[in-house]
Fold:
Amino acid sequence: MKYRFTTSASVLAIIASSAVPVSAQDYTRFGIEQDLPGTCSYAATDAKDYSGRTLSIITHAIPVIGEPTALHAEQFAELTGAEVNVVHVPFGDLFQRIMIPFQSEQNAYDVMFYPSLWIGDFSRFLAPVPEAYVNSTGMMDVTPSFTGVATWNGEMIQYPMDGDRHYLKFRTDVFDNADVQAKYLADTGNELTVPATWEEYNQVAAYFNASDWDGDGELNYGSAEVAKRDDLMFSAFISRAAPYAKHPDVQGGFFFDLETMEPLINTPGFVRGLELFIEAQASFPPGGTNFGLGDEIFSFGGGQTLMSYSWDDAYIQANQEDSRIRNMVAAAPLPGASEVWNRETGEWDIFETPNRAPYMTWGWSSAVSSMSEEQEMGFDFLCFFSNEANAEHDMQIGRFGVNPYRNAHFDVDYWTGQGWADRTAQTYVTTLSEMEESQNRVFDLRVPGVSQFMSAMANGVAEAMAGQKTAQEALDDVAQEWAEITDRIGKDRLRDAYANVVALEDNEG
Amino acid sequence: MGAYGAPTSHRGVNTMLSSKHFFLLPALLTLVAIILFPLLFTIRVSFSSWDVFQSGLDYIGGKNYGRVFADERFWQSLGRLSLLSLISVSLQYTLGFALALAVWKQVRGGRFLRVLFLIPMMTTPVVMSVIWRTVFHESLGPANDILGMFGIGAVPWLSSATGAFISVLIVEIWQWTPFMFLLLLAGLVSLPREPYLAAAIDGAGTWRTFWQVTFPLMAPITIGALIIRLIEASKIMDTVYVLTSGGPGTATETSSYYIYIRGLRDFQIGYSAALSLVYLVIMIVSLTVIAKLLLRLLVGKVG
Structure:
């Protein structure tokens, strides 16, 4: 009852504040260019008074999302008078530091920042986002993909403040070079084009591997990929397998068959993806099979490799002012597949235009605990954190880990305004915005026990990459382990959760 | 009164015993809080299905233990750990003893060398693993650059199974040889002078003096140092985590790292408790056997 009252009060306050014109007060001392109009602008937040009240936040260690959390918590405290305590935790500890208080019913944190794919584990402990915030100016502009990612059983329970996806990054100084194109044609009999399939990707990477194609006296390499077992490699594998395993005409599950909850991870599409991942290792830089995300960012962003794919970080790093390859990179959709496994017919279907399956990979998300006694303040903080001015500010700083997630962010002028060349900005915006339009997207396995599923998959993929098992053997073992996890969790419980993912992939949302 | 001659009454004895127990209470409470409670709690958790989707302590009998015995990955990691521990501790002992002997007698700069040898042990394992990971970086790290100066091609330090295993070994040996050095040097310094005088009078050379006098006299300290290091080495986790994450494949996955994955990353609390207890029992049994064997081999020989 108390919650209903505070929520209602909050709704009224927000409606009232959004109706009030933005004050002319100067907030540039907070590091923003200017306060932008919106429900939770600096001016609107400044009008709130949380003096004598305390907000507890748990977030990742600095940098990435820990840094903007600390920054905006300090700003929020100054504007509202609240005491805001921020706990920073390394990634490996973050899940259990949030989960143990949840399970033991302790009200440890009001607000949490964490990877969005943990929604299946946390859903029962999160407070639904009140209607007023769902209708706030910032939220109304969030793209359907990321409102979908924040939604569980038809209710928004995560507060979107980041948008992530995997896409291809490549060096334009090589791909656009007429001499290089002619030599490539002469040597291979093929035109040098941005790879449309993963087979083409591997071929191009192999051709340019271990040669000094940028003329700096150092060897360059074909591909930088996240291949270290416990360092987000599972996401790289999903990117590679998706177009072979996600058939646009087959609905009802990518990782599992929603009806039977039988794992599909060892079906031919996934096996083909893994075989090509194994083959690609020959075009990695020395030590590339042990590359984590940081290494991948450094390798591509530092100019060592021709192509890469993963989150935005490497692209942002490559285009920073001090980068020697600034504006020599462009973005493109992930490569696709000309043959796609159809699990309904049990055959490979041939596609004249390669099948694309954009991977809307996990990014940072946030939420308010259902046990929190400061839910109103918690949502106000998240609304302030992601207000228009802060989002614009945070996206400019690569290490913050905040990437486009609102329609307003797909604006070429905004990125050229950061000093990006037209092509660099245009391909980036087009690639990202077209993923929103795709009808064949793949999302993470956002179910209870997602870490167990992904850990099993990463281990199997790593064993195949290291030559300990064949691709088929490794994925058969993964499927076996997934079946055991499914039995422990319970098929029905898992199916109910997985239905949320399938609804997004089948565009039912 | 009772304490000074007069027969102590029954009641007096009881009072004294009660007082004694009272004074023991803080130590007993500490023991219970620090050792017994966590151990008993872990045992209780190991019989539950506490997991990411099942909180609390339900009772599932020995299911988790059944899973442990069928878990090939765990047993493989245990075998890998045994090999890693035996090789690294043996080399640490050999190098540590050599270094201790080198600075045992008065040598120029001996004090400086002692401090220098101890530095690796005083650094934080996680931080040093990050430094070593940079050293072993195959295209940007100095290890391959240095080898290149001698015409040796790039070594796949962290991307091949053998290379990764050797890299972990190198870091372990680098970090913990100083510990051996410290213990063995303390032992050498405390040795009696008389046996050496007797050996000198008998005309024993350096090599014979070492094998007939120094080594046997150092046997008790050797056993202690080896056991302590084996216990520590069997817990290796941070170096593996930072350097290789257990890879490539599972080439460097040790038991403690595997338990970490199951417990903290997968959040299988009940199962990881069972893994931990099985691992604990195996460690206690195997280290006891090793200690007995070392005693028989080293001290028995002396006797």
Observations:
- Chain B has two domains: 2-40, 71-302.
- Chain B touches chain A through 34 residues (CB under 8 Å).
- DSSP finds 13 helices and no strands in chain B.
- Confidence is low (pLDDT under 50) at residues 1-6 of chain B.
